[in-house]
Amino acid sequence: MIIDGHSHLSDSDYGNIQVYLTQLEETGIDQAVLVPGGMVDVRKMTDYITGRAEPESTVPNNAYITKACQENDRFHGFACIDPHSSDSAAHFESYLKAGFRGLKFSPLTHQFTFTSRAVADLIACCSQYGVPVYSHVLYSPGACTAKFVSLAKQYPKVNFILGHMGFGPADQEGLEAAVSLDNFFLETSTGSFLHIQESVRRAGPSKIIFGSEFPLSHPKAELEKILLLKLSDDEREKILGKNIAELIQLG
């Protein structure tokens, strides 16, 4: 079974449910983990990363993910929560009770630090419900790889997934964390082939999670990077679905 471990859905012409379903059929992917998209227009992502553009919205459309999961049992949602919002932990808990399977942070959109009290409250909620935390990182003091790794060390009973394998094409801090910490995982979407290959060699296939980053990338393009790795069937199965299935307690 192949599970896309990270995809963004939004009510847009390029990132909606139907476009994604079509790409899944073209790729042969069985299930997927969804997070809200649409807060930024990924077609001009570099403008946001460099600060030339501001997010179109800071409000995650978790309702769109709820709808997608209710209509299709192939989908599993991670709720995106703005730590600055009032009662963010209680808000997140309501999504978990509704069937969401993890927490998604978006420091690019919400401009917070991983060391904030609100983040700690959200992580504590993850610990209580046994669900993982997913986040990308930025080249900034408060939301860099090192700060995300520190969270994983502070909460060893919570599983942390580093989006896109970290910042840039070969984030060594993220890789070292995956090697040394039992609760730290690397998600492959938009990662470089060489870094994915090196991460599998050093951290092992049990610490790597396949993701597509739809709609910025096509699931088939991201899948091909995994299929090109020289892996045993068991190793490939872990990366392509088994690891994320265990983290979100499928089946």
UniProtKB/TrEMBL annotation:
Domain (Amidohydrolase-related) ranges: 3-247
Keywords for the protein's UniProt record, in alphabetical order: Hydrolase, Lyase
Coiled-coil ranges per UniProt: none
A Pfam family this chain is assigned to: Amidohydro_2
MF term (GO), any: hydrolase activity
Keyword Lyase: yes
Name of this chain's protein: Amidohydrolase family protein
The organism of origin for this protein: Heliobacterium mobile (Heliobacillus mobilis)
Lineage: Bacteria, Bacillati, Bacillota, Clostridia, Eubacteriales
